Amino acid sequence: MRHYCSAMAVLLLCGVIGSSLFVVTFLIDGLTRPGYHPVRHPVSALALGSRGWVQAANFIVCGLLLAAAAVGILLATDNPLLAAAAGVFGLSLVASGVFPMDPMRGYPPGTPDDTPSTTSRTHQWHDWAGAAVFVSLPITALIATLQSDELLLTVYSGATTAALVALSASFGQAWENDSPRTGLIQRAMIIVGWAWFAVFCGTLLP
């Protein structure tokens, strides 16, 4: 039993660490990247250019940590649907790093400041992976809302679900219109969602 609890704790800590590391990395990288504008450009654009390996590694490493946390969630809650949604979240993040988006909208520097009429297959796969990330996370929070017996966690998970849905819709509209605040909206969505995932994993620690 002691080994079981220890393994579960390590897996859940992967969720806390992976969520926190992902946010800290893209915030620092975005603020220090020449030619990159965090308020406008999406986080995915950081995987482009000579320093693109930093964000690509951030996607993959943190995605694997979050996928590992899904196993910890299963052990802690015995809820396979909740764990599966969390697992999709983590693995989709990995796919976002494996398949980078195309250069566009002025980044990397020298790229035309518009959206190309056609995109590569890799960019399309990145879009699908991103869609899976931002659908699976609110689903995870929703399931957590419905299965939690703790009032505070239930309220927090429910509020996070609603916020993620609203921010996702706002981000989608901003992206389509090439809003100058596209990156800011996406960052708000990521911070809200990833913070919740870290807190949720933390509450499950034995």
UniProtKB/TrEMBL annotation:
Keywords: Membrane, Transmembrane, Transmembrane helix. The keyword Ribosomal protein does not apply. The chain crosses the membrane at residues 7-28, 53-74, 81-99, 128-146, 153-172, 184-205. This is DUF998 family protein. It comes from Actinoalloteichus fjordicus.
